[in-house]
Amino acid sequence: MGIVRGEEMVLNIGPQHPATHGVLRLQVKTDGEVVSQITPYMGYLHRCFEKHCENVTYEQVIPFTDRCDYLSSMSMNFGYVVAMEELMDIKVNERVEHIRVTMAELQRIASHLLCTGVFGLDLGAFTPFLWALRDRERILDLFELTCGARLLYNYMWVGGLSHDIPNGFVESTYEFLDYFEPKVDELENILAHNKILVERSADIGVMPKDVAISYGVTGPNLRASGVNWDLRKNDPYSIYDRFEFNVPVGEGIKGTVGDCWDRFYVRILEIRESVKIIRQALASMPKDGDVHQSLPKKLRPPKGSIYSRTETPRGDLGYYIESDGSPIPYRLKMRSPAFTALSVMDEIGAGWLLSDVLAILGSLDIVLGEIDR
Amino acid sequence: MTVDFIYNFLNDLLPGFLGNDLLLILAMLLPFFALFGFITIYGFGVIYAELKVSSFIQDKTGPMGQGYGFHAGKWGLLQPVADGLHLFFKEDIIPATADRPLFILAPFLIFIGMFVGIIAIPFGEAIIISDMNIGIFYILGIGSLAVIALILAGWSSNNKWALYGGMRSAAQIISYEIPAGLSLIVVILLASSLSMQEIISYQSGGIFNWIIFDNPFMPIAFIIFFISALAETNRTPFDLPESESELVAGFVTEYSGARYAFFFLSEYVNMFVISAVAATAFLGGWQSPFPNFLNTPAWSVFWMISKAFFLVFVMIWVRWTVPRLRVDQLMHLCWKVFIPIGLFNIFGVSIWTVLRG
């Protein structure tokens, strides 16, 4: 490759393209199949999230956070309420904390299932995608049981939750986990150790440690590059410091550390860790406790600002909230993990073949709702 | 069931009833319509099979029908019909910047390439439309017509994705014809004939006389041929020309309606042709697996179709199981793995044949 040079062609991948995970446009310069430059163009899904937030009350921000990363709405809610509770110095009771962790980890499984499935789909394997969606459906059923919604939950409120978990939820979740654990092995067998998939993803799109850190990449993408960084361990929020779980990092089993295969495999390992956390959270969940107990009458945070970060399925989600003492935020800024993941695209994607570029894009697990906000 | 046979049969049945020329045209048209009917029924069957097999693999129900009203019939059996009607009633869009004549020509060309391949496929001792003495060579040759059609489609669409798809398919199909040809050469070496019927008659007398069990080199040749067949029909894991997650739809990106249906159907017909060639060359064609048992003409049609359908089923099975290769890996597999093994196979089989006498 690269010896014979032809005329370069500009190719627009997207905004309507099956492999761009939403409305993203990648402008690539190609010489035949070889891609020499990638420029991501986003903003097709921009809905003025941050500007909207300056015009609604603090409670009304929560549904907007749902719609940012629509594949992990629970985690987005979680980040916002953690920030607000820190700003207003609210302490929620144990039951609420346990339910929140359970929901966030279920959401992490759902999100990673979709990511691994879609990664397979990007490489041409259709069946694992539907298997992943089949299991994700069970999680959505659990969410529906709890708050009635399947995608955008508006479930976690500042100081509590919108609903308590229904009767039988704990049993249903245990039942799901028992069903689900063998299915993860099945998914791993058909995808991760498949010869063709390994050929397609090992040693492809290697993101070295220093590149990942200098671009600010977080979450599974950073861990796949071999950096042990997980906010649930390194800067615990809520009650994550009580649970036993490992932070899987990329080891380059099939190729180099930080290649597409590692980014994909770390997510499968994280699914297993989330299952562990959910089991512990369900086991130690207090029987009583009102989920509305510490809900404030009116959200009127004191003058000041807060930056709080949490670990969503895609990485460090930061909320910067500036309050002027009124019930409406003066300024609200979100630090999006998928945005930084997308920005590294040109660095790790240039020089590969067209098929590889789409594999790399799939392995970064971006959600355009969160990038464009 | 050659044209001559039908002509003589009609002549005996209706002596002097029609003019001789008219009778000849009728004798030519009859197999044509039989073939067309076969392709239509096969098309519906295989599309239904693809839907149902994929549903079985993917834990879903696939097309289902229940109750009364507009739906896809019992067990969704009418789903392929509905799909076909849907495609044929759709608006036919030709992009303004497309090369009109070539754009229109491409789907017909690909369909003709597939369609005329079937006439050399034997379904029984006398059930073959044209028993050419170069049958297997003819099918391979006429099958290559598809490459021209795919390049035409890719180029004339005036779309970058289509161009990528067309170029990929050209490289892929031309490359994989070599290992496919190499593994058929060993069959021809054994049967010492290019005629489909003579290759089959070489394999008469039960399952252990089939060419695949003839000598230790033949299973390798069969596997190479089958994998090359997957590549030639653009099926997963070699569906790069129309890989939906990379090239949107490849060379069919700009096609819609009936023209798209032609591409779609010809892929499935091609699957059947290639499977039938594999069944003829390696699995005894229309011969029964049991010596002197169940080998009447009706059974011979059954054996041929079931052997071909089994291979078609394996193709569907593979499609829903594995991911897709990359362009360079595809070429690596062809030129650095299959062709050396194929050449070695020819060498081995030649020595084997000489030593066996």
Oligomer: heterodimer
Per DSSP, the total helix count of chain A is 15
Overall structural class of chain B, as computed from helix and strand content, comes to: mainly alpha
Radius of gyration of chain A: 21 Å
CA(first)-CA(last) distance of chain A: 39 Å
What characteristic shape of chain B results from the CA principal axes?
Answer: globular
Strand composition percent of chain B: under 5%
Helix amount of chain A, in percent?
A: 40-55%
Describe this structure in words.
The complex is a heterodimer of chains A (373) and B (357). By secondary structure, chain A is α+β, with helices and mostly antiparallel strands. Chain A has helices at 49-53, 58-68, 73-88, 94-122, 127-147, 169-191, 195-201, 209-215, 220-224, 231-234, 260-283, 337-343, 345-349, 354-364, 368-372; strands spanning 9-13, 25-31, 34-41, 156-157, 160-161, 304-312, 315-323, 331-335. Helices cover 48% and strands 13% of the residues of chain A. In chain A, strands 1-2-3 form a three-stranded antiparallel β-sheet. Chain A has a three-stranded antiparallel β-sheet with strand order 6-7-8. In chain A, strand 2 (25-31) and strand 3 form a beta hairpin. The radius of gyration of chain A is 21 Å and the shape is globular. The mean pLDDT of chain A is 87. With 357 residues, chain B is an all-alpha fold. Chain B has one domain (90-356). Chain B has helices at residues 3-13, 20-57, 79-89, 100-115, 135-143, 145-156, 160-191, 196-202, 218-232, 257-282, 297-319, 327-356. In chain B, helix 3 packs across helix 10, helix 7 (160-191) packs parallel to helix 12 and helix 10 packs across helix 11 (297-319). The longest helix of chain B is centred in the N-terminal third of the chain and has 38 residues, at 20-57. Chain B is globular, with a radius of gyration of 21 Å. Classes of the chains: A alpha+beta (373), B mainly alpha (357). The A-B interface holds A 1, 9, 11, 17-19, 33, 120-127, 130-131, 134, 190, 194, 196-197, 199-200, 353-356, 358 and B 54, 57-60, 160, 164, 236-237, 239-240, 243-246, 248, 320-329.
